[in-house]
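Lab notebook, page 48
Experiment: co-folding of the full assembly
Goal: obtain a model of how the components sit together before planning crosslinking
Operator: M.T.
Materials (sequences as entered):
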Amino acid sequence: MSYHAEAFQNEYLALGASEVNAIVTVTSTGGEGGRRTGGATEIIIVDASGSMQAEGRIAAARQAAKAAVECIDDGVHFAIIAGVSTAQQLFPAPGELAVASAQSRAQASVAIDRLSANGGTAMGAWLLLASQLFAQRPGDIKHAILLTDGDNGERQGYLETVLERIKESFVCDCRGIGASWKVAELRKIADKMLGTVDIVAKPAELAASFQQMITAAMGKTSADVQLKVWTPVNATVRFVKQVEPLVADLTGKRAEDGPRAGRYPLGSWGQESRDYHICVDVPAGAGGDEMLAARVHVMEGDTEHARCLVRAVWTDDTALSTKINRQVAHYTGQAELADAIQAGIAARESGDDRTATIKFGRAAQLAHASGNKATEELLAKVVEIEDPVTGTVRLKRKVAAEDEMALDTRSTKTVRVGRGQ
Amino acid sequence: MTVIECTSCDEERAAGASFCEACGRKLAEPASAVEPSAAKKDCARCGAAGSVGDDGYCEECGMMAGRSRDHLEADGGASGAAVSDRGRRHHRNEDAMWLAVGVEAADVVVCDGVSASFDPDAASDIAVRAAGELLASARHPDSPAGAVGNPDETAELEDLERPPGAVGLAGSVSHAIAGAAAAVASLAHTGDPRRAAANPACTIIAAAIRGPHVGYGWVGDSRIYWLGPEGPAQQLTEDDSWATHVIAMGVDPVTAMNDPKAHAITAWLGADAGPVAPRVRSFTADEPGHLLLCSDGLWNYLPDVAEFGSVVRDCLETADSLLGATRALVAYANAAGGADNITVALIPVRPAETTTAEQA
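Observation: model returned without errors.
Model output:
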């Protein structure tokens, strides 16, 4: 794999200014023909609680799990976990991982037919079993899918304790089926496990969703990529956020790495490109001073794949310092869009229609201005957008729960801006 | 930077020369060569020992410790010298220079990046290289026959009437500036996308000196002066600036120079400059003197030509070398405030009869 990192910023700061912003684009191009050179392990966790009997969900889950297994490349290790009040390994034998082949995939398919829905929901236990299985394969690219249709039934705080223990040790994409699961709960798991969260409203859509996740996971060629950020003395990192393809705040995930540097986990990588917004507070310099505000390295273990520089140049020329970089402005707006939607949903749930209207209005305005059509369409299912330019919206009386959950889970999806300045 | 010898004909060549005046062979890299990497330097800002990293920033405080272009010198011994300096107020040096010298011969180019454009330092850098290389490869009237070009072409050219020396040099300078203009214009579509919105731009002054003959040209407000044995300095160029323009139209010079627009330039090299029409001139020296090329970082502090002349002469008299005098002029501008980048080149020119006399 070869990586490239590039910083987009306006390096010119007004005298006295101390906040430095940059968008860092990390792009990896497939080395070795974009193929994996190491091992990979895939674990599929399917909720088999009693509620899965409704609307033919368990049948859809069986079908989706089978479709997913078919997408696993030969030689990849895999397992299937049935989620009830405890975690039960459905395939292969408890404590083991299968190696994908035509034969093992057929055996898995037979085992999946045994999946039946009766029991509770214990996500902490499911994830813990997955992490124990993954532990057999150090160095592998590790990916899990978690499918559920309800709330976690474990005692308060147990899931959090488990997540704290296993965080970032594998990537977990979470999918909720139906409308009785909690977005906040799955988002918490996805956030700690560097994965995604989404709603699958109709059981019929489940197989396609699983196939897409497995295919994406099979395309990963590096297991554990990190962003190392060096900042000068007396500087502080205000935040490091992934801003494309999804908004994800990485600030709290920092692990110190030597003097004045820290690492932020980016999870596994394939042939792809992601954008990060880095904001650093530095001591203000004098006119004409140039400072290196951050040196950003793309790391995999001790190997540096790429680096780029975030600079600060102080000037009394306001024509230079007042220009906001288009990338920074765009992604600042996209992050605000995600925040506005989530705040709007929270306000609506608590019955504060006034705040909800303001937040959704701002969201409609931001989505429209930035050309984020997908989010604008999702918003239109929750509010009547009267004028997207001014952000005038009316709350809808009746909103389908699935539509609101789709808006919530997909609020973090961003769009790219053209690279022109 | 040191004087080097042409490996082909042992002719002495100065730092910055890219060609041998005697045999026309291409020499080593030009004036803005990178300094050799040494042990890690101490940070001048926070004082941390050995903290300056390979990318030029302090590993402690993050401050830029210095760029290779912050202070450049080209020493052509007795044939010419040039110094370019960041000054005291600007964060980088957007001026660039080129100096190539031979015996009684020199090519010199100075460019000043337009600060309002994006990456003006790249503009000035590419402009001096393009113009310098074109001057180097030009078939100068006084260079030995067959030095440049293939023998067939030379044979055909023999029958043509050569233009008088200085006029021919002016033609070379005009050609070199046109090449620099094209090179700078091409920058708008490469590198940082901000270049497309505010394309890199710069001024240019170029001179080719062969014995007593001088050809020179300019675009923008960098200047060339002639300093004879006595009297005030003589400004050879006319600034392409708003002030010069309105003064020519009859506005009172003091009023014009006090206008905020006084220094706005009316011609430059860059993608937005349109067709560039450099003004070129030539002369043949009939008295010994010095050709001085400089960016506005120097002449801003010496608006009066009489004072300019005496300051330059003081520097020439006190310094023990041409480079010393050039350094002293840069130091003068820095002592006066160093508000802009400063680039100065000094080339001695001798009239025909003394040239012959000394060579005999």
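Interpretation: Chain A touches chain B through 24 residues (CB under 8 Å).
Next step: discuss with group before ordering constructs.
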